[in-house]
Amino acid sequence: MRKGFQFASISLALLFMLSCTRNTDTIGYPTFEQRQQVNALLISGTTNPGQTALEHAREAIAETFGDSKTILLINFASLPEKRDAYLTRMQGLFAEIGPGYEMHSLHDIELDRCAEAVKSAEGFYVSGGNTFLLLRELYDRDVLDLIGERVLGGVPYIGSSAGSNIGGQVIGTTNDFPLVDVPTRLSLGFLPAVFNPHHPDPALDKIQFEARQWKIGEYTRYHENEAVIGVTNPGMLRIRGDEISLVGIGATAFVHSDGEKQVITSTEVGEVSMVLSRSVTR
Ligand code: ASP
Q: Into how many domains does the chain fold?
């Protein structure tokens, strides 16, 4: 297999076990017990080459939202002037995913009513763009903890790219520039790791792959207690309580944890499939 990696189609959970035992109590990451109701999908790439936006994720999105049809879009990762058009585009995409979705956007809601909107949402869709901007706007509106509480209570959460980054414990391995400062890099943490979207696939671009691995390696050198999961564009992490699966046709995840590097692949052809499944323990 690839140099420096052990190949394994085993549970991500196993790889997180030690890394998840450390800071949870001291800095308030959700505990194993608190994560039991989580129903989330963390998408890496919104658009897969050769497909329309979210085409590769439709089935997984519909499955994650289930009967939840009133979706709150959180599109603060986009520049403010682009948010109206983004909402319209997402409403169109959701009409293709299935009938009955009703999507509103938090950017349309007055500051003093944001908490109410978060409390009444049946599901969250947090779109991509700039991760710092997204996190900063959520802190500014004081709704990050509230979103986290609802997700821990079982309200479905789907993130794409920047929206997936904030599902992790910190936004430590975003590919984005800090357009704005954030009060802290701490994010939702229902994924007991740090997410890295758009991870290059070595079969497609070896140079970019090695560059990304180098950067993640430097990151873990300074944050050795954090597990990092890099997911290629077709991939998604499906989180159901303590079960974390890599789904997406042709997806690969590169996991760095406790000084170990492992590669996890989804099936080569066929339906979105679960290839990892094991309890995340703390
Ligand atoms: N800019 C990415 C996005 O599409 C996030 C990232 O690469 O970290 O949301």
A: 1
107 assigned to active site: no
Q: Which atom of ligand 1 is nearest to the CA of 128?
A: 9
257 is catalytic: no
pLDDT in tens, 253-264: 999 998 899 999
Catalytic residue among 104, 140, 198, 223: 198
Question: In whole angstroms, how far apart are CA 45 and each of 80, 102, 218, 234?
Answer: 21, 23, 23, 6
| Residue 268: its H or E element | none
In the block, residue with structure tokens 């000084």: 259
**pLDDT by residue (tens digit) across 211-232?**
999 999 999 999 999 999 999 9
Strand order through the sheet with 123-126: 102-105, 70-74, 123-126, 157-160, 39-43, 236-240, 243-247
Domain contains 16 = no
Centroid of ligand 1 to alpha carbon of 103 (angstroms): 22
Please report whether residue 11 resides in a domain: no
Catalytic residue among 19, 44, 160, 161: 161
Range of the domain at 107: 35-245
Within-domain flag for 194: yes
How many angstroms separate the alpha carbon of residue 254 from the centre of ligand 1? 17
| 23 occurs within a structural domain | no
Is 205 a catalytic site residue? no
The tens digit of pLDDT for each residue in 119-169 reads 999 999 999 999 999 999 999 999 999 999 999 999 999 999 999 999 999
